[in-house]
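Most newcomers find our protein records easier to grasp once they have seen one. To make this concrete, we reproduce a full record directly below:

===
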Amino acid sequence: MSQDSKEMRQTGLAKAFRSLRTRFAKSEHGNIAMLFGLMLVPLIFAVGSAVDYSRAAQQKVALQTALDASALALGLMPAGSPQGDMETMAAQVFNANFPGQGNWGSSIVVSNVNGVIDLTLVGDINTLFMGLANIHTMDINVASQVVVGGGTIEIAMVLDNSGSMGGSKISALKDAAEGLVNTLFTGMPPSTTDLSFSLAPFATFVDIGESNINASWMDTNALSSIHSENFSSPANRFDLYNNIANVHWEGCVEARPYPYDVQDDTPSVGIPDTLYVPSFAPDNRDDSRGDGGVYWNDYLPDMISGSNEDRQENIGKYYNGVNAQPDNLGTTYNIGPSFLCNQSELVPLTSNQANILDGIGNMVARGNTNIVQGLVWGWRTLSPSEPFTQGRAYTDNRNQKILILLSDGANWITPSRNFNKSLYSAYGFIKDNRLGTVSASSSMITARMNDRTAEACTNIKNTGITIYTITFDLNDSNTIDMMRNCASSNSHYYNSPSVSDLDGVFEEIAEKLRQLRISR
């Protein structure tokens, strides 16, 4: 309650008592006046005490929050830290979270017994009314406990980087995500491994990093059932990239064939469809704009005549040493075999604060929205198995795995009126029926992608991962329902209707995550 509010309330109480006193004074019955005199002081004391207790309760909440922050900071200090260092850290963190209230942090008592740190603080608050009974202060006691090394946290941030996130929205997202990272790293030693973050920016694809080109879990030998899709004869996509002199694979991969696209099965040569296939958008027919503009990705001469499909699938045009010839659409769509692979790169789990902040800072808004692929790649960064192995075992009861998913739009693959039925995406072309539909209807495509998203959400939660979801400046009811149902509970879902609200959402999530390490 503000000071002005307190004064107004006290003034109101005073007026009420003066009115009551006047009425009793005018009474002709002396016994009533005497009774009023006897009751007035206890009545004032009772009402005033309620005000004082309310103020004390509010102060206790603020003190507890600041003390919990100190406990978290001490819990992340190296084992065996000197008592003096712990007391200094506790005071600094407490005063930073309880500013303008004096040096309360110097009164914190720190006890460290067998790795269990107890913090206690005894303070007081001046009373406003209870002085009538010679009670001028009220004690406020708060305590917090944390176990040193008693818990670790892994957080995957899965963030929409599609074109609709451009301008102020991507700027607000960067600020909010950086704020969450900085908040959780506050008070931690530089060498900590107890907190780690990963980042999975998603749009049409997820860019897992071209440095993984020779990884054992990549389909380098063209074994997957989708590897030669859209080519007239068996082809190794990496060989095709190598043949084109002025392009290279830029790090995007296609979705694995169902059901592996929504699962975390370890990639295995023995099960080829679990391997990851590099994205490779085939060259569309020549003079694409002469056919009503329904072909977007013409970068090589067809070399043959025939149907549009024959010309697109001709494997002979990818001969060794050929040069791609991007048309005047420029780099917006990344014309060439890496079509629409133009978002920032995934960052695997890391405890290096600077690395994750750099990844956030590199985010750009381009392409379509593929929530399901962002979701599963965020999951894979938390997983202890390949393709990324930084995640702790699911059976580690000391570890918390968290996934934060944000999107500002519905799942979307751009439909097309040509024989491909769509632009190229992580699911190839819609004509390939990898989403369970060959319809060029945008609503049907989105519905099938939503089904896959919901299935992935269930699979992730079944591993024990906690999911927070955020819809950002979004009015689509189907997507809102899907994101709400994806969250671990209703309290893990947030609707952020505007840019100005996003910081507050991330701050609230950060505060919840801070509490994960507090044991009492």
